[in-house]
Amino acid sequence: MASDLAATSSASAAARLPKLRDIVELLKPITWFAPMWAFLCGVVSAGAPLIQRWPEALAGVLLAGPLVCATSQAVNEWFDRHVDAINEPNRPIPSGRVPGRWGLWLALIGTTISAAFAALLGPVVFVAGLVGLALAWAYSAPPLRLKRSYIAGPGAVALSYEGLAWFTGAALMSGGLPAWPSILLALLYSIGAHGIMTLNDFKAIEGDRATGIRSMPAVLGPARAAQIACLVMLIPQGAVLTLLVVLGKPAFAALIALLILGQALCARRLLRDPARFAPWYNATGVTQFVLGMMASAIAISPFFRPA
Asked: Which residues pair with 214 in a beta bridge?
């Protein structure tokens, strides 16, 4: 009798439609900013006239954020539902507000729509979109579940959110492969973003340890993880500064140097108590990091070259 009641209850939950606000919460719109910003950096780096090509740019922003990034969140929410039951039991899936297999269906539907939309924007964007979707599934879903590694997990997210989104924006505006400085900047900022993703793991240390996810804070402890994350953020920006000097952009190189200094000063406070100040650093140091992305994109853009 008890098993029959449990089965009936499970079937009833699966049949119930989730509310729109719970689906939106599951897709985490706040996370869409990072790939949308990186995409726009790629657009700016290509130097295309946005007045004439704004429909393509808008389509790319939608692909980067509300489609691919939202899909990655649905995938992660579904495969992290057991971890979230420990870290954040009020999340839509563990709380039952998105019942049954609705989380999985949303991930599959989002993957299909994102791939189809990317195909409309050309072959290079289509391939980049498929790579981003593949990384989303590889990060969260078994058997790979890259998030179990504190190197591969943050690396996959950083590459997808920053480098791949930047590359896609530059490729869409260039009509093919972007220029090498743009590709190099995308790669450098992807490496730096690995540190940002590590800082994001501070909020889930308890659940990660309980479920065998080897995030850097869970394995090495908050203090050492914060030190490594800050270095990983700062060193690639030093390479960006050097690149801008080589390209004859001293004013932009000086701006990047000031932003690096600002991040280093913020990091001093972060390292006093990483678990406490990680959210604060995300609002201060990380903001300077993303401002540097746009500054470097402007620096290499043909549109901003003097006549």
From this structure: 149
DSSP assigned state of 179: P
Beta carbons within 8 Å of 164's beta carbon, 6+ residues apart:
35, 128, 131, 132, 135, 186, 190
- Taken in order of first residue, the domains within the chain and their CATH numbers are 19-304 (1.10.600)
Q: Pick 1 or 57 by higher pLDDT.
A: 57
Q: How far apart are CA 183 and CA 38, in angstroms?
A: 12
Q: Position 134: which residue type?
A: A
Residue 295: helix, strand or coil by DSSP? helix
pTM: 0.90
Place of tokens 């971890």: 83
Distance CA 150, CA 161 (A): 17
C-beta of residue 171 within 8 angstroms of C-beta of residue 128: yes
Residues 6 or more apart in contact with residue 236 via CB below 8 angstroms? 188, 189, 191, 192
Residue 187: exposed, middle, or buried by beta-carbon count in 10 A (0-12, 13-18, 19+)?
middle
Q: What is the pLDDT of residues 225-259, one digit of tens each?
A: 999 999 999 999 999 999 999 999 999 999 999 99
Q: Which residues contact 234 (CB under 8 A, 6 or more apart)?
A: 192, 260, 263, 264, 267
* Matching residue, tokens 């190189």: 253
Structure tokens given for 180: 């090498």
